[in-house]
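Q: Could you fold this chain for me?
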Amino acid sequence: MYCKNCGRHLKEGMRFCDRCGQSVRKSKQSSQAARHQEIEELKAERLNRKKRLAEKEAKQMRNKQRKKKKSNALVFFVVILLVAVVSVIIGYNIFPSNGNISGTTATVAPKSTGASVNATEAPSSVKSGYSVLTIGNISCPYPSDFHANVVNGNEKLNIVDSLGGATMVVRQEGKSGEPKNLMLEYANQGGTASYSRAGADWYAITLENNGTITHRKCILRNGIAVYYDFSYSTSSSSAKRYEEHISYIDSNFK
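A: Sure. Below is the predicted structure, expressed as structure tokens.
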């Protein structure tokens, strides 16, 4: 034990410090007070340490939550961006600007049977009453008052005149060869040819088989064949109008 006044070492049993005369009892009381204060300070330090630790953990948790929110927002933005890009690509291939169909996978006809084909509007250079289907760099006009059937397989357009019964189907497929030879190959499938013409990259032929007229014009470019078949009955009251359709479509299918 030491004197709290002068710091002298006190022997056991001493009542007063032999150096400064300080009461040993007072020194004991001072020592107990100091110890109590030290304990209180330690308690306060522990509480402060716990408080700081809790605040640190809370801050870390808030930072994690903020990072998670930012990450989720980034993922959401990327998803929206991808959806937008895909929508633009699909929209470009199916419903491009000016209402015309473009690209090799384009289909102008609505999916529901009996719906009017109105997905494209005829440009100013196209005759009134017609719309245009564009596949790559090939444009094919068609009667805009025909109604749509569901397209299947390699069909790009499938329409029907509900009044006169004529049908028009536009298809695309991989095919190469001399146009004249391909025309003869098609003619050999059956029917009597009443008209046939061939050029450097196209052919056109009209066949009659069992009272049905079928006219085909085909364009061949880079190993791809795009053609339309226009069919109607010879007994149809609209036969003359269908001949006019074929004449106009042939002249502008290029």
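A (continued): Residues 92-122 have pLDDT under 50 and may be disordered.
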